[in-house]
Amino acid sequence: MEFRYLGNSGLKVSEIIYGNWLTHGSQVENDAALACVRAALDAGITTFDTADVYANGKAESVLGQALQGERRASLEIFTKVYWPTGPGGPNDTGLSRKHILESIDGSLRRLGTDYVDLYQAHRYDVETPLEETMQAFADVVRQGKALYIGVSEWTAAQIRAGHALAQDLGIQLISSQPQYSMLWRVIEDEVVPTSRELGISQIVWSPIAQGVLSGKYQPGAEPPAGSRATDEKGGADMIKRFLTDETLTAVQRLKPIADDLGVTQAQLAVAWVLANDNVAGAIVGASRPEQVESNAEAAGLRLEADVLRAVDEALGDIPETDPGKTRSPEARVV
After folding, report:
1. pTM for this entry
2. Integer CA distances (angstroms), 59 to 33, 102, 217, in order
3. Distances in whole angstroms, Cα of residue 134 to Cα of each of 130, 237, 298
4. Max Cα distance, the chain (Å)
5. CA-to-CA distance for 250 and 31, rounded, in angstroms?
6. pLDDT higher for 231 or 102?
7. How far apart are CA 118 and CA 151, in angstroms?
8. d(CA 146, CA 143)
9. pLDDT tens digits, residue range 69-83?
10. SS3 assignment, position 88
11. Angle CA 127–132–138, to nearest 5
């Protein structure tokens, strides 16, 4: 496993980060989830990402159980706050002081730890003053419940404003967690340059585009049984944007590139996001331990410029690049 600094901080994270978004507590039974976490640890992964909203807290509980007995100082545990949790009352969502301070305590309890290494705003809250949000995050840090602060799916302008307030409050906002893959490049024009300037790294989710970049989905064919595209609990909704014949045909053109390198298409996809020097880590999920083991092998795989050009040529104008695709959720209706 290889490691990178997270933003302009002294915190190192594993290039491959294990995430349990659409799996633990939802798609995968606990025994399988525990086996995946064990496989991650065996592969040298030390960084684990989750959120309170995943399976309404169950994902955090499963991850906490899976990490029991591990040396806490040898792990980097990340979680997030924003989306509705609990029974969904008027204060069970957003980035208000009330929701943040109550949510961190719930996350720590479920994870079985005294602190998280990174506490992230899961989205930008258009209804709560940013000053209130950042003050609450600062208090979480000063209480020792989080070491660093990050954001997820914030625009460049939102990141800049949050970073300025964090500096004023004497805390470190060091990371951005956006969707990023060969097919979804909306961060490249604005978020990445702004983040480089401010000393913020990306920790990216869905580097394999929900599995599409693995090449297992064929144009004109039904999705494989048991794949994410057949999961009605949420996976199918997320992946459908990539399941056009045009996109799947373009993805098939990546196979010779992967074959020439002696890697799988999924490993090529993970290595591709890590080729961006503003990316500190790629979050991968899994329903089976062997998926974790395979994805972890992308760590340390460096792609030469000719390979990156070949990827661009293979995909053509298929990738989404519009920075406007990063949008804050609409105002909540209570």
Report:
1. 0.91
2. 9, 18, 27
3. 6, 32, 35
4. 55
5. 37
6. 102
7. 10
8. 8
9. 999 999 999 999 999
10. coil
11. 135
Can you tell me which residue has the tokens 């983040």? 195
Q: Which tokens belong to 112?
A: 């079985």
The vertex-78 CA angle with 296 and 176, nearest 5°, equals 85
Q: What is the pLDDT of residue 22?
A: 57
Degrees, nearest 5: CA angle 104-12-94: 25
The separation between CA 308 and the C-alpha centre of its own chain, rounded to angstroms, equals 22
3-state secondary structure of 137: helix
Q: What is the mean pLDDT of residues 64-69?
A: 92
Alpha-carbon distances of 26 from 41, 54, 112, 228, 289, rounded to whole Å: 21, 8, 20, 12, 17
73: amino acid identity, one letter: A
More confident position, 58 or 179: 179
* Nearest residue to 80 (alpha-carbon basis) of 140, 122, 33: 122
As to burial, measured by CB atoms within 10 angstroms (0-12 exposed, 13-18 middle, 19+ buried), residue 135 is middle
| Number of residues written out for the chain | 334
Whole-angstrom CA distances from 153 to 125, 180, 218 are 11, 10, 30
Query: Are 262 and 231 contacting, i.e. CB atoms less than 8 angstroms apart?
Result: no
Across the chain, mean pLDDT equals 91
- Active site includes 54? yes
Chain position carrying tokens 């020097």: 277
Domains recognised in the chain with CATH numbers? 3-209+273-301 (3.20.20.100)
Annotated catalytic residue: which of 18, 54, 124, 148?
A: 54
CA atoms within 13 A on the CB side of 168: 10
- 171 burial class (0-12, 13-18, 19+ CB within 10 angstroms)? buried
Which of 242, 240, 244 lies closest to 221, judged by CA? Answer: 244
pLDDT tens readout for residues 89-99: 899 999 999 99
Q: What is the DSSP string of 105-123?
A: HHHHHHHT-S-EEEEEESS
SS3 308: helix
